[in-house]
Each structure stands twice: as C-alpha cells, then as structure tokens.
C-alpha cells in the first residue's frame, strides 16, 4: 500500500481527500487517528467541508413524504405513547362488565332469592 | 430568514436536541428536511433510497447532537456534511450491487451559480484547475465517485491518478486560502 506521506500534498491533501470521501476505509481510519490530536488538521477538514457544502447550494429542496417524519420520530424517540382511548379502554371495558354483572344480578332476582 | 439568524436558529435547535428536546428536533426537521432531502435525492437519484438516507441522517442528528459543538463545524455545514456522507454511502452500496446506475461522466450535474461568497470563491478556484480535475471534485462530492472510477475515466491506474488529483487539490487549497 502507498503511504500517505509518500504522496504529494502530505496530510493537507489527505484532509481534502477525506472531506471528499475519497479515502479507502483503511486510509480513512488512519487519517481519523491522525486527526484526533491535531487541531490544525481538523481545521483543514472543517474548512474543506465548508467550501464543499457550497456545491449543494444549487440543489433544489424537496419536501419529504409526511409518513417519513413519523418513521423518523419513532426511530429517534422510541414508540409513541398509546392514544388516549387505548389508555382508558381497560377501564371502560371493566365498567361495562361491572354494569353487565349488576344488571344480571338484579334482573335474575338472585339477590331477592338470597335475602328471602 | 436571514443567513446569520438562520445559522443561530439551527444551532439553538441542535443544542436543544443534545438535551433530548423533541420539540427542537421537530422544528429542525420541519425547517431543514426539504433541503436535506433534496440533497439526498440529488445524490442517490432514488426517492426510496433518499428516504432511508434521511432517516439515517436524523438518527445521527438525534444521537450525536451532543458532540456537535466539539466538532467545530458550522451548524448548516454539519447537517449538509452528514447528509452528503450518508447519501454517498448509500449510493456506493447500491452501485456495488447494481441497484444504482454506474457513475455517468457526461452528467455535469447542476451547474447553477452558488449564491454565497464561499460558493463563488470555490467556483472561481475550480475554474483555475484543468476542467477534468474540477469535474472530478464535483463528481466525488455529489456523485460518490471513487478513485477507482476516476482513474478509469482518466485511463490510468489508481496509483497514477491519486498523486495527480492530490496536486490539483493542493492547487485548489492554495487558491482558496488567498
């Protein structure tokens, strides 16, 4: 493999290659290790990123489909809390069941029978 | 929105997101998703793949907003860079399995004039390079071109192409720092 130091431009040219996404995976990891303790080299990358993003200025914006926003929020925040009717549903069912039992008891005369 | 105010607003949202503020996340999405989705669509050239790119981009924004300040990027540059990286990553993966068209060297891309001062500076410095080299910079950034593809287009080996392009990048850097 060619060593970066053998190539023209040294680490500064590598910073441009890095910002352009031209480095192989191996070279990229190597460059990132080099970046870690080198604020000047980091500034090189940031400066390149600033210039290169101007290439996107003429790209027309496009509104993503509405469903994508929900998918993205679900992925980021986790599942949304259940809707309010689903939260009260167990209580509502319980209330209906209770009313049903009460009605059965009264209408069948069970209580009357027990008392008499 | 004025550019300076826009940058400050985006930064405020990113700082909010770093603290887990969902409203800030929604506000940033509402304001910036058309720009980022437009870029993703432009690079990957497929709406479905671009949607996956945008998902990955906002996942990264949500999880890495805390590290944004330490990175030293401007807020908009940070967002655009993440989007460009994710889009190129997706495009290359899809090209590798034949799901995306191979790189088209005749497609010169959107060549409108960049409105910002930095954009005009880059454009004028690119014009000082030999035309094919300037095209390679744009092809790498907006069409995910690799050294393998660029060297094939130049008709030379990768080992030969790389020093040539690196010299051009240094020439470009020299012009940009004038």
Keywords:
heterodimer; A: 116 residues; Arc Repressor Mutant, subunit A; B: 178 residues; mainly alpha; Rna Polymerase Sigma Factor, Chain: A; 2 domains; 9 helices; 75% helix
Provide a quick synopsis of the model:
With 116 residues, chain A is an all-alpha fold. Helix content of chain A is 70%, strand content 0%. Chain A contains 6 helices and no strands.
How would you characterize the overall build of this protein?
The complex is a heterodimer of chains A (116) and B (178). Chain A has 116 residues and is mainly alpha-helical. Chain A folds into two domains: 4-64, Orthogonal Bundle (Arc Repressor Mutant, subunit A); 84-115. Chain A is built from six helices and no strands. The model of chain A has no long low-confidence stretch (mean pLDDT 86). Chain B is mainly alpha-helical and 178 residues long. Chain B has two domains: 3-96, RNA polymerase sigma factor, region 2, helix turn helix motif (Rna Polymerase Sigma Factor, Chain: A, Orthogonal Bundle); 117-176, Winged helix-like DNA-binding domain superfamily/Winged helix DNA-binding domain (Arc Repressor Mutant, subunit A, Orthogonal Bundle), CATH 1.10.10. Chain B has nine helices and no strands. Chain B has helices spanning 3-18, 22-44, 47-64, 68-71, 75-96, 117-127, 131-143, 147-154, 158-176. In chain B, helix 1 crosses helix 2 and helix 8 (147-154) packs across helix 9 (158-176). In chain B, 35% of the residues are buried. Chains A and B meet through helix 1, helix 3 and helix 4 of A and helix 2, helix 3, helix 5, helix 6 and helix 7 of B.
